[in-house]
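Sorry to interrupt, but I need a hand with the structure work. Go ahead and set the record down below:
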Amino acid sequence: MALVNWADQPAERTIARHALGLPPGVPLLAFDYWGQRAWVERSDPVPLGRIAAHGVRLLALRAHDGGPQLAGTDLHLTAGGEVSEWTADARRTTFTLSVGHRAAGSVWLWLPAEPAAA
């Protein structure tokens, strides 16, 4: 989701959960593409933070189920659309990235516990 602040001054922005098609109380896994951070958000409306004058906040917002989950990547503006395969269970998480070209970048995961190995 991209939020543009067209104003000549910084602005705090929020979005209501119903505007995202989510019922109240559903936790969100949020990823800020340019800020390169992920967090679980439970507020309604969802605080999207301060956006600079004429700035853009690019976020990936996903329903958070508490299990292993992709928070986002910095390989594409979709922050995860390049994940072509994903398998997760209580012991293992595996995924495949299909970027279509040689690329370097980072992947942010939400894991319910510290990984035993990476």
